[in-house]
Amino acid sequence: MCSFCNQHTISGAAHVPDAEEVKKTCREAFSYIKNKENSEIAFFGGSFTAVPEKYRTELLQSVQEFIGEEGFGGIRISTRPDCIDEKILTELKKYHVTAIELGCQSMDNEVLILNERGHDAESVRRASELIRAYGFELGHQMMTGLYGSTPEKDSYTADEIIKLHPDTVRIYPVVILAGTRLAELYSEGKYPVYSLDEMVSYCSGYMKRFEENGIRVIKCGLHASEAVEGEMLGGYYHPAFRELCESRIFRDRLDAVLSPGAYNIFVKPSLVSKVTGQKRSNIKYFTQKGITIKVIPAEQKEEINVFKIT
């Protein structure tokens, strides 16, 4: 098991579901989800292609009646990069899997060894190439702040992921959970961590770089969970971590063009809270620099890209 894994806490699952339970869940979702063709059945919370083949096939077979015309658009899975080969991909294609997300975590081999991942960075490259060749949507998952990593190594991981150009990325800052090897290292004082604000700064930069390279960031931070909050010993968790990062991106953009003075910032209504910052953090930041900003929702008919300054 990887140094950071406490799968029950992360997934929220008390036990491993069988095919009938999965079918029941799909049947319930089928009854209330309207836009089915743009929705997917997802097998997440572990390495799907690493489970026994018989069990994996049973799960895939159990959901086939809910896919296709007037059904869900396909199946999304997450797995390890060293658990992908031609045979597995052929099976997944047969059962209408459309997207595969690889838990890359880091592209630095020393960090992978220290965190007991059991694969190297080249495994990520090989698996990504195979997944592309078989016509699946490719996703990558990276973890920031792992044991033995540094901001420079995390930045290198982001650069290497960009070179592979997945369709999507999930960014997971490390949360140190009870019952893991990281928890032991942390309690022994062998795993120092930096502040949440520093991690927000780093992750906002990765988000910006991914999006500038046409890679959708579909998740940033672990989902809000009482289980995670209850088991967390340290690391980088906030129930609105992505919003913190998005607010930081807007703050940095404004910081590059504003000098001391007073400004009206016109933004799309949907972006007001992100430009203002959580608990008005961006407003307070600029005030301390002698800059007064007033964030104003632009009229829907007004053509603006992100914001307009007056």
What does this entry look like structurally?
The chain has helices at 7-11, 19-32, 53-62, 86-94, 109-114, 121-133, 151-164, 181-187, 196-212, 226-231, 241-255, 272-276, 281-288, and strands at residues 40-43, 74-79, 97-105, 137-144, 168-173, 175-177, 216-220, 232-235, 261-267, 291-297, 307-309. The chain has 310 residues and is an alpha/beta fold. Helix 9 (196-212) crosses helix 11 (241-255). It starts with 6 loop residues before the first helix and ends with a strand.
Write the layout of secondary structure elements.
Blueprint: H1 7-11, H2 19-32, E1 40-43, H3 53-62, E2 74-79, H4 86-94, E3 97-105, H5 109-114, H6 121-133, E4 137-144, H7 151-164, E5 168-173, E6 175-177, H8 181-187, H9 196-212, E7 216-220, H10 226-231, E8 232-235, H11 241-255, E9 261-267, H12 272-276, H13 281-288, E10 291-297, E11 307-309
Radius of gyration, CA atoms, in whole angstroms: 21 Å
**Major sheet: order of its strands?**
1-2-3-4-5-7
Order of helices and strands: HHEHEHEHHEHEEHHEHEHEHHEE
Mean pLDDT, rounded to whole units? Answer: 92
State the shape: globular
Number of helices: 13
Instruction: Bin the strand percentage.
Output: 15-25%
Low-confidence stretches: none
User: What's the N-to-C terminus distance?
Assistant: 55 Å
DSSP strand count: 11
Q: Could you give a short account of the major beta sheet?
A: 6 strands, parallel
